[in-house]
Amino acid sequence: MKSKSKVIKSDGFKWKGVERKDYKTDTQNFKDIQRNSLLGDDIPELNFQTRYFEIQPGGYSSLEIHHHPHSVVIIRGEGTLILENNIHELEVQDVIYIAPNTIHQFHADKSKPLGFICVVDRYRDRPVIPDDETIRQRITSPDVLKKIQK
Predict the structure, then answer these.
(1) Which of 35, 66, 78, 85 fits a disulfide with 110 by CB distance 3.0 to 4.6 angstroms?
(2) Spatial separation of the C-alpha atoms in residues 110 and 100, rounded to whole Å
(3) Which long-range contacts (C-beta less than 8 Å, at least 24 apart) are formed by 6-10?
(4) What is the largest distance, in Å, between two alpha-carbon atoms of the chain?
(5) Confidence of residue 26 (pLDDT cuts 50, 70, 90)
(6) How many domains are contained in the chain?
(7) What is the reported pTM?
(8) Do the domain assignments include residue 12?
């Protein structure tokens, strides 16, 4: 039996029937970030997941790397993104492609929450936290090295 189509109504960056969860529980290299799984967990026909992440001011996602690509659309606030050796300023409606094996980290460093939709494959590898040696080999920008939170 196929799943039924549906609409999930939003109310101020919260979605009816969607639980807001802590970002991760197996690491501690992030700060003030939560995740909402919007589509994919309960719809077997989807081969991807659509999630909403919200980082509170001063918070950041984990510095990570993985084999799967993902796409991101900023829908709230402003912030910055580390992509390997570069820092990118982010604002509402920016669209980001994170290629496989790219070191990345989101920061809500502009005094407002940073909220974004992230789409990933349903079946994917788990993120890996780059060790100090990997960071030394791949990140040469002093500005990026100063910004990294581990």
Answers:
(1) 78
(2) 27
(3) 8/38, 8/39
(4) 55
(5) low
(6) 1
(7) 0.93
(8) no
